[in-house]
Amino acid sequence: MINIVPLKARTISEMRCGMKTTLLDFSRQSESTMIENSQIFYERIKKRRTVRDFSADRFPEEIVRAAVMSAGSAPNGANMQPWHFAITNDPKIKSIIRTQSEKEEREFYNHRAPEEWLQALAPLGTDENKPFLETAPVLIGVFLKQYTEDDEGTRKKNYYPSESVGIACGMLISALHFSGLATLTHTPSPMKFLNEIFERPKSERPYLLLVVGYPSIGCEVPAITKKSFNQIASFVGDS
Asked: What phi and psi values does residue 238 have, to the nearest 5 degrees?
């Protein structure tokens, strides 16, 4: 009779199937320090706002490198790391991206967008004109890798790529904000033109275009509010 061990009874070591492991670099903090750190982070991150008026002032490349590496540490399906970050500060490339993006945006605002969507966007004052794509010093094209190829050309499936890349983008935006920069998530539809501009293969799908820089002097943003804790969260069960 074959003895089948239930999944829940298997140890973590057995499930790793011989994978090389290392000790977790983790140190517990006092509860007071944890509370303080969580509040400090919230106070910083709640000031993050999407910016559409950028300064042309440049900033050290090291900031972007560190932020991208932070994004690359994001949790992801089976550690396939299904992302690529294409970065440019080249004025010619930014100009091409703006031209192609505005072409798609004109189609969107004038023909493709449902009226309900246009009404939702109206208070934000967005339209097909995207001057920030040239003004901001850096553009980051984020690409989702639909599969991975090894050195022999064998394709390997990437698991949960959309979720994984989404988490990485959130960490990228947070890292840039924490570093003192503003961002804008730009998603013209369709975005296939970014593959050619950023020289990325067809196996990668453009996920979003992140605009990065300092906000312009006197930059204004819509006077919006965020929902309260009780509106976005709930505790379930006994505490």
From this structure: -70, 140
How far is it, in rounded angstroms, from Cα 141 to Cα 170?
14
Residue 206 zone, left/alpha/beta (φ > 0; ψ -120 to 50; rest): beta
CB atoms within 10 A of CB 62: 9
Q: What is the CATH number of domain 59-216?
A: 3.40.109.10
Give the residue among 205, 208, 211, 212 at the shortest CA–CA distance from 82.
205
Whether 215 contacts 51, CB under 8 Å: yes
Q: pTM for the full model?
A: 0.88
How far is the C-alpha of 162 from the C-alpha of 207, rounded, in Å?
A: 9
> Phi and psi of 104, rounded to 5°?
-70, -35
User: What SS3 state is found at 141?
Assistant: strand
Domain borders along the chain are 59-216
pLDDT tens per residue, range 1-51: 445 445 554 555 555 667 799 999 999 999 999 999 999 999 999 999 999
DSSP H helices, the chain, are 12-15, 31-45, 61-71, 91-107, 115-121, 132-135, 161-179, 193-197, 229-232
Cα(177)–Cα(19) distance, integer angstroms: 36
Those residues with Cβ within 8 angstroms of residue 67's Cβ, 6 or more apart along the chain or in another chain: 172, 175, 176, 179
Q: How many CA atoms lie within 13 A of 68 on its CB side?
A: 18
Q: Is 24 helix (H, G, I), strand (E, B) or coil?
A: coil
